[in-house]
Amino acid sequence: MTDSPAIQTQTREASFRKFMTAVYSWMVFALIISAVCAYITATNMVIIRAVFGNPMVFYALIIGELAVVFILSIRIHKMSVMGASLMFIFYSVLNGVTLSVVLLAYTGASVFRAFVITAGMFVCMSVYGRVTKSDLRSAGKYLMMGLFGIIIASVVNLFFRSSALDWIISLVTVTVFAGLTAYDTQKLSVIAERIGENETASKIAIIGALELYLDFINIFLALLRLFGKSRK
Description:
It is a single chain. The chain is an all-alpha fold and 232 residues long. It is built from eight helices and no strands. Helix 1 (5-42) packs across helix 8 and helix 5 (108-131) packs across helix 8. The N and C termini lie far apart (72 Å). 30% of the residues are buried.
């Protein structure tokens, strides 16, 4: 005996809510972990000397973050849910330690203001990605091109150290990652409507949380570069 259409619809809606709740719960959890680790690092001179006293340690942390993202993105289908969860938490810790430089470089008021603006932008773009009837896949292609452009321009500016170019890069970064927030939300919403409740769904929720986490962090850092007030 098959379920009635009404029961099937209720099941799909329940699965959708569970998946999206898992995505945003993981994202918020990761942001909290990173914020706590950033604060602990920035307020502990022993850790500050260990992380920033030797540039090799800081760069090793950056490389570690990239490695974790790469492993999660490429190998998550072969991981257990627990393994993927621990990897994501580990990444949040590493990123929190490296983000402590933000608390050391900018005033607390600047950090708080940038966080509030980022949160507002993120919520608006995420809601837009969820409710819009437009297909954002074509926009996603251009946003990815913009992301590669940001990376290339950032590398070039390491040599030129142009404040004007840095301002332009930061402005473009806010625009691109705001767009990616909407794009990623729509993509995850489509997945949520189809995936059901299983181990694969739990792992994809973690990857989705990572994508949205990165969107949030990049908007936050770009806004700080644009409007943040230095402690110096």
